[in-house]
Fold this sequence. Notes:
Elements: H1 7-25, E1 34-35, H2 36-40, H3 48-51, H4 59-80, H5 82-107, H6 111-116, E2 119-120, H7 125-138, E3 144-147, E4 150-153, H8 156-167, H9 174-189, H10 201-211, H11 232-244, E5 270-272, E6 278-280, H12 292-305, H13 321-330, H14 336-344
Antiparallel strand pairs: 1-2, 3-4, 5-6
Amino acid sequence: MSFEYASVTKGLMLGIALTSVAAGIFDLKHYLNLQLVPHISRHHQYWRLIVHHIACGSSSDLILVELFLYNASVCIERSFGSVKYASFLIISAVTTMLISFLALLVAQMTPVTSSLFNNIPPGPIAITSAVLYQYTRLVPPAYHFRIFGVGMSDKVWVYAIAAQLAISQFPAKLLPAAVGLLAGYLYRSDLLQLKGWRVSAKFVRLAEAWITPLFGEVQPMRRTNRVLPEPRAQVEARRQAAAIDPEEVVTTARNPRPRRTPTVHPAIPTVSTPDGTSATSEDTPEAPSQTGSGVVRQWMSELASGARPAGGARTVRAPSEAEIAILTGMFPDLEREVVLAVLQRR
């Protein structure tokens, strides 16, 4: 997999990595944490609602976020397109910011929830959860497999990364994960009528002219030559078919197209008369008449048998070049002597 047709994902991954490393180097991680009390309620630091999305608080979270974006976000951007995907990320960031603030307010209603969900750790957990919802709905599984009798697909690895992100700081990260899934559902269902919104064309041209060249050229992805496992439904169907007809021959050869047998009008055979002259079968009433298809069928049966004409009672005639050409065209692998032997047999 590569970043072909996924420039927004590449920029997002580089941006999160740079901001996370910069926050760790300059000791700014304490500004990324979001707490309703006292950051918002007492100090009115509403900017924390925005900055807690842009960087991860630990190196383990950064690795998991990068792995998730590489495996899931690339597929969603290729499905949406770069402009629509950038618009989706902006809408998801704004929606999760508002819903997170409302969720923190609702959590203060009881002492238990206020102690559990007063803090939201830094990191784009809500945005990745919104991407996860789109990944679940849009991307089909490539193959299925079983572990200890439990059916799974290749998408289980993406779900495992998302689950590890959600429970890494339990239960603080459960709130942004649930908020992100809700934001992804709202965008997918278009309840807020925001699905048709796109970033402006001026911003797109500016990004293509000044930002995209900074990421370097995107090489096309290399097509894999690995054979993926066959879907289980097809395996079961093939097994059932084999159980019904065990004598069925499995082959990969193409079905040959049926050939049209040309209609051949055979030459009228000659018969010897007692006075030494030759006469055609039309002059002899005892000569049986044959149609063109019957003659061709007889030629094919004689060629298949490989029998040679036996000398004796029957008169050997000289076949015409037209008849020899017809049989040679139908059976190019046969020798001329065999073709002549078949045509001379009467």
